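Protein 1 of 2
SEQ + STRUCT:
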Amino acid sequence: MEQVAVPSGYERVVLPFGYKFCPTDSELILFYLKSKILGQDPIVKKKSLDQDLIDIIPTIDVFSSNPDQLPVGDYEHGSCSEWYFFSNRRKGKILTKDGFYRVSSRNHVYMSKHKKELIGFVRKLDFYHGRPDKGSKSQWSIYEYRVNPEWLQVNEMDHATREKILNVVACKVIYRQPPKPEGTFELLGVRDVELFIKNQEMDNVELELNEKDQKENENENVQLELKTSRNERDRKGKEKDQNEKGNERIKK
């Protein structure tokens, strides 16, 4: 299987141990895609890194091949099963030699939660094996980010930059691991661990609520049994009194 090659001019960035490249949607557009389009360095060169972080995202033709043919093995900066690339935008049907991409969702990207300025757009494309009429969905997805042309305004005479705004995109490639059989284990990434802990906390809260409900139900059952027992005792007491009174009448 032929793999897409990283351009020869690309220099691999070496990050310090423990560092991972996992920008938010707005950060990816604000500090990386915008800088790529304008030909600027997104971050001033740091002495500790000794390289410009623009090189952390290589530029390739993402949609020219299947996702498993992308040079993900050369990308070492993201979280587990997550890779970033710059690419040219594709419009219409996106077909590869062995499959096709299908858009499954579209969303807006804003400056921040508090500043609702529309800076870009993101669409999710799922990869399918086979032909569009009878394809099977794979574990691969790509989130494609592009800049809002109305937000990033440039000189009308700067045709080259205006062309980049419309056609240059940032892509986040994701591979979702298929469900594992019971009794198997695997190494987890940071986000996987965070999600696992969050799910465990939710399970614990749900367990506490269930235990609380169970105790309340048990208390209600105890109260009901006590009430039933008292009623039964009162009923038997009344029957006994009535029987004794009846016996006294008979004796008289």
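Protein 2 of 2
SEQ + STRUCT:
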Amino acid sequence: MKNRSRWTLLGGVLLGGALLSACASSSAPSSNKVSLSINYYHGAISDTAIENAKKAFPDYELNFKQLPANGDFDTKLKASLNSTSAPDITAINSNIADYIPYSDRFVNLLDYGTADLAQDYVEWKWDSCFTNDKSAQIALPLDIGPTALFYNTDAFQKAGLPTDDQAVSELLISDEAYMEAAKQMKEKADMPMFQSSVSLLRQRYRAMTQHIYDKDDNLTYADGQLKKAWDYAVMAEKNGYTLGAKGNSAEGANSVQRGLFGGMIEASWGINDLAEDGASPKQWLVAKSPFLPSNYGGSYLAVIKTTAHPKEAADVVKYLTNEESQRVNYKELALFPANKKVFDDDFANVKHELFGDEQYNHYFIEAANALEYIPFDPRESAAFEAFEDQMTLVAEQGKDPEQAWNDAKKKVEEISK
């Protein structure tokens, strides 16, 4: 069994390398131009930004390769970092902390003048691109995912809650106020406020000001903040304030399209999800989040050390993350800019057919500007997943919440050894 497992693992690594090699081989130069291969996942870079980059670098042969946005992207990228099969430039998702330990396998962009760009970006996102000692910058920010409250106007009206975005923002000013509104929605409209206890736990987790591991890699469970988030989600589940629909699924999309629950705290790119889920105009509007400002998602571009053209690749990365590129990414993909130059009056006052005359972007801008960088331990995602899994058992199988909490902690302690 051990040998079989070993070869299965190696086979996966070799397969990943082979696939990336196939991507890289497509960038073989057909002329004397500098040839650069650029791997990105679906939804990370707009078609217009790609075409603009090709026009901006007529002496370069830029070969963009779009890959599925799933876990395989990370697996294949990590497998290729020490080989010539790696692309010259790669997108990295919001899990950039997973790549900081491999900083020596990326080009240090500080060597190519990026320090002068710091003032252009929201500070916390910029800081996340660096090693802990700030000696190396492995990426530049493509976009961010500041959050706000998306609320169901019909559900709020039935519950006797306000439907104007400013009034909603003034009423739901805290965790407690949000839970009180959930109680009112249950009593007066017989509807749940939340899609599920698991999604609510995620939303509260993203709003924490500390992580499960502190900056010195110690396991702290966010000094009590994680338990408060857990208890908040349990309270909603036990009081019948949750629908029980799974997010990122057909069931979840259906619950949004049919307006089966009251509110969700989601990133700005959730606007595209609403459209894809078939939401009707003015069915959902945007208000300030009742939780502390949080971020959900956001990508980066990095240059891999094996490139034969580090300066040229760095120049392309700087272009693809500049103000112009982030404006078109927002226009086509609703990717919220990390570049603060985009935050002008036109951007703040933007409208969308789903929200009628509401000018909603200021809620996302306020969240983006209020956030602070929190160091992210590479074990963080796996640790939080243990709590997500246990919350699922609470919701779907009626597991005792305290036992579930303790079982999650036990797994995290094993991860932390």
